[in-house]
Write a structure and sequence with these properties.
Length: 135
């Protein structure tokens, strides 16, 4: 199985939208219906969010979004993984990419939500590297 993790341009919002729609309805964080996902994706484009996709054989099966606040120093981030692709290391790999992008965009801290682990945490960027290394 070919796996690739990459930062997406906002022109790839359709891939991200399709990924969110494929999530189990109980684990969808933007909302449980497709209209909520439509609105969420429009908001991501408007906020200039950073999207990261994990592709398996060319189809996005896990993803992360980083949404900076107005100051562009703090951000909310979320990681989602489709059923059938949990426990394949995508959360760790996406967290590592979140760290890289947070540094690249000079973000001071993030609040990260992980759907599969049902956990949320807030950490300064300099501590994200420790998390990425130790999970």
């Amino acid at each position: 199985m070919g796996t690739e993790i990459r930062v997406l341009g906002l022109n790839s919002i359709e891939d991200y939208h399709a990924h969110l729609v494929r999530l189990d309805r109980t684990s969808r964080f933007p909302g449980t219906d497709d209209r909520a996902i439509d609105a969420h994706c429009l908001g991501l484009v408007a906020s200039r969010a950073i999207l990261i996709g994990a592709f398996v054989d060319g189809v996005m099966r896990a993803a992360a979004e980083i949404v900076p606040d107005r100051s562009a120093r703090h951000a909310e981030a979320a990681i989602t993984v489709e059923n059938g692709f949990l426990d394949r290391g995508f959360e760790r790999q996406l967290t590592e990419r979140i760290v890289d992008e947070a540094r690249r965009h000079h973000l001071n801290d993030l609040r990260v939500q992980e759907q599969s682990a049902s956990r949320s945490y807030r950490i300064p960027v300099f501590e994200l590297q420790v998390y990425a290394a130790n999970g």
